[in-house]
Amino acid sequence: MRGQGQISRRLVVLAAVAGLLLLAWAPGAAAVDIQAVLAPFPDLAGFARLLASSPVARELAGRSSLTLLAVPNADLPQSPSAFAAAAGADLADVLRYHVLLEYLSPADLRRLPAAGKLVTTLFQTTGRASADLGAVNVTAAGPGLGVVRSPAPFPGSNATVLGSVTSVPYNLSVLAVDGLIAPFGFDLAASESRPPAAVNITRVLADARGFNVAASMLEASGVAEEFEGDERGAGITVFVPTDDAFASLPAGDRLQSLPADRKAVVLRFHVLHSYYPLGSLESIVNPLQPTLATEYASQAGRFTLNITRSNGSVAIDTGVVQATITRTVFDQNPVAVFAVSKVLLPKEMFTRADSAAVVAAALAPPPAAASSMPPEPPESARTPPTKLSSPPALRGGARNGTAVSPPSSSAAKATATGRWCIALLYVLPALLPLV
């Protein structure tokens, strides 16, 4: 009996040690890099671009076990932003409505009950959906794999699942659907019967962060107040330099020394008197665009921006400065706000010598920091993508390669493992007398 008791105690100790080792080495679910997943599929390039220009792509970086309802290029509306705005919704919320917080494979769709299944979306997590109306009802019906609709259907609130595009098993399933779906509660008729509230540009910039200088200049100059009236017409498109863009201006630059009325001209030079979502700017027919500053000029054709597509991004040439759009800050018809890499200096007020000084300041080495700590690497450097095999593209695209980003670096994993080993050293002496 005593020998059996010792064996039992040994088994308990071994089980405890094994459990601790499993906890130390068990990998977490991989967070999906959605841009890398969609990159091999050219038919989804438009939808991937919408995700990249919104906060949704970043929100997905920390999640796993998802289903993405992707809309092919041929099924996207000509202006997704206008589609969202017409329904009274924000484009980012429409995109969140296409992210299901559950992994659904084609086999899972075929096993759905006749009444369908209610699946929560990323939009539900924003708190802007009442009750469970941030969810979708998925049913195995229709000519495709199934139909996705709002729990309270209304016109334009459903889409047919055309087929599976690719998957990272149990982590991400990408399904193609034949159109965008608007969340319930955004009524087209109601939105058309009331004028939209004016967008507070300075508030948008404050919420987006990284635009403190531009926001304070707009507010101090009174130019921001002019935007409200312009929104009622054809809308506006605002190019906002980041704080880093202003920091790259050399000390004592001419912009800061300008009188208030001339600074206001420079600020108006950053605004087009028409609403252009990113897709429209990328395919703009007439690259030479007048700005709000043009309307205040004594001669026509002055204070214009040359907008073209270059190396996969939108380039803006003032005749003095060449800048690029780095991201979409806000896009809801009739207002679009884009971050730009440089302060746009009009050739009517500045020379190329001013531009050269800006470039020299940007290329100058930064002052030595008080701390010797190295700068934190960008997120892409911290989580390099790992290649995985994938099914053929939706319409004959690339045949390999979806990529996932690991949830943490090898250093973080080594740190966690070291902590578990230290815990084992403390636990084992207490357990050994029981053996």
From TrEMBL:
SUPFAM superfamilies attached to this UniProt entry: FAS1 domain (SSF82153)
Keywords: Cell membrane, Glycoprotein, GPI-anchor, Lipoprotein, Membrane, Signal
Signal sequence range: 1-31
FAS1 domain residues: 31-181, 198-344
Membrane topology type: Lipid-anchor; GPI-anchor
Protein family (similarity comment): Belongs to the fasciclin-like AGP family.
Name of the featured protein: FAS1 domain-containing protein
Naturally occurring in which organism (per UniProt): Triticum urartu (Red wild einkorn)
